[in-house]
Each structure stands twice: as structure tokens, then as C-alpha cells.
Amino acid sequence: MDKLIISACICGAEVTKEQNPAVPYTVEEIVREAKSAYDAGAALIHLHVRWDDGTPTQDTARFQECIDAIRKECPDAIIQPSTGGAVGMTDLERLASTDVVPTPEMATLDCGTCNFGGSEIFVNSNDTIINFAKIMKERGIKPELEVFDKGMIDLALKTADKKGLLVHPLHWDFVLGVQMNATVRDLVYMVESIPAGSTWTATGLGKNAWHIAAATISMGGHVRVGFEDNLYLEKGVLAKSNGEMVEKAVKLAKLLGREVATPAEAREILGLAPLK
């Protein structure tokens, strides 16, 4: 079983300081949270950025500023910009996060349209998936294939993979508790549906965070924690930082017999080039 890669999704695009005062908006706050996660054992920082008032943005200059600042504090971390953006953004707006220098090693690629609750619909058409996969392949960016239900696995394979736009072995991120239930049964179903040789990460939203993390660690997958997905360390107790949640994931890994991967080991597991 590979060592455990811990990804920290430090702010997302939807959570706010009203929900948890530690949610980062400014560059300084984003760096603080990235460093807290990195110091606790996260090898990968999954990055959304905000304007100082908390408004989500895919602005290239803002991503560049945040990535440069994080790199000074976390020199060998894998920094994975999100191309998810926020509900309502265009494809070109979302892809602007990959225009930074140097080109990101990884970025997210959402593999289907998703109901986020109420009237919010996160649209990812077949053409969007193909376009994102094509651009990432051209730029040498490894996509993290983000899926919210089993049908999105099939869609990714029938659209982008069929056209030769995905390079194997693939890496998947299962986000459970939005459109698909966050149960161990459903997690097993997802894992059994991806191509042999793939690597995978999983996360459970909100109250689902920790039982999905424990199951994922036991099953040999990799785990994602952080404010984007969950604001609580345990029931009724707000996490004070992303680092606290990474620390909890590290403790779970130790209890379950998994060693935690360094950034260099994570690059090897994911098939990324060693950091120069």
C-alpha cells in the first residue's frame, strides 16, 4: 500500500468567515492556512483564491500572487489550482488559474454537471470536459479528475479518455455527500469503477468528513481535508485551522497503519516529475 497523500483544500469558493472565522480570504491568510496544513503533513495544497472581501476569483494575477507567496513558505508542496471556480463562471474564467508561471504540476478537472443545492447548478458539459482535458494535456498539467457521482467517472472515460486526452495512470478525486451519498458502500462502488492502476483521493463533505477519511485510509486511497469541505474538527467544534484537520488525518493514518507521504513521495506516487 502506498504512503498516504494528504491534500488540504484550504478555502474553497463558497465557505465564509461567518461560518468559521478562520476561513482565509487575503493572500496573507491563504498563506497562513497553507503553511499550517503543510507543517502538519499535507503534501498537496488544493487552491482556490479570493479577493480580500471573500469574493471567489479565478484571476490569474491573484493566483500567481498566492502561489508565489505559498511557495516561499512551503517550498516543495504540490500546489494544485482549482479550475472549478464558482457557480456561474465561464470555462475561460475557470481556466485562468492555470495561466500562472511556472505551469502548475496538477489542476482539477470536473467531470460532470452537479446539483450543489437549491437552484445552484455547477455546469460541466461534455465540451467543457474535453476542452479542459485538451488544454491540460497540451500544457503538461496532470488533471485531478473530480467526480461527484459514479456517472461522472463514466462521462470522463467516454468523452475525454476516448479521445486520447487523458494520460494514464489517471488520478481521481471522489467528492461524496453532495450528489452521491457519503457512505463506505458508495466509496467502494466508486473505487471499483475506475481503471486499474489509477490513484484516488476521497473527501466527505461536512459531517461526512471523518468516516470517509478513515475508510479511505484503510482502503489505500489518499485523503483530502480542509475548510472547503468541512469546517469542524468534530461535532460542534469548529476547526481553528486547516492544520488542525491535517493533524487529525495524520493521527487517523497512524492508528490505521499508513505512513504519510512527503511532497517528494507524493510526486512519485502521482507520476509527477521530481521537483527541480
Describe this structure in words.
With 276 residues, this protein is α/β, with parallel strands linked by helices. The protein has one domain: Aldolase class I (TIM Barrel, Alpha-Beta Barrel), CATH 3.20.20. 36% of the residues lie in helices and 20% in strands. The strands form four sheets. An eight-stranded parallel β-sheet has the order 5-2-1-12-11-10-9-6, sandwiched between helices. Strands 3-4 form a two-stranded antiparallel ribbon. A hairpin with a 2-residue loop joins strand 7 and strand 8. The chain is globular. The model has no long low-confidence stretch (mean pLDDT 96).
Annotation keywords:
two-stranded antiparallel sheet; 276 residues; TIM Barrel; 14 strands; eight-stranded parallel sheet; alpha/beta
Sum this structure up briefly.
By secondary structure, this protein is of the alpha/beta class. The protein has helices at residues 27-40, 60-73, 91-95, 126-139, 150-161, 184-191, 209-219, 242-255, 263-270, and strands at residues 6-9, 44-47, 49-50, 56-57, 78-81, 106-110, 114-117, 120-122, 142-147, 171-176, 199-204, 222-225, 232-234, 237-238. The protein has one domain: TIM Barrel (Alpha-Beta Barrel).
Number of domains: 1
CATH-derived architecture: Alpha-Beta Barrel
Which homologous superfamily in CATH is the superfamily? Aldolase class I
Number of helices: 9
Topology summary:
Layout: E1 6-9, H1 27-40, E2 44-47, E3 49-50, E4 56-57, H2 60-73, E5 78-81, H3 91-95, E6 106-110, E7 114-117, E8 120-122, H4 126-139, E9 142-147, H5 150-161, E10 171-176, H6 184-191, E11 199-204, H7 209-219, E12 222-225, E13 232-234, E14 237-238, H8 242-255, H9 263-270
Parallel strand pairs: 1-2, 1-12, 2-5, 6-9, 9-10, 10-11, 11-12
Antiparallel strand pairs: 3-4, 7-8, 13-14
Helix pairs in contact: 1-2, 1-8, 4-5
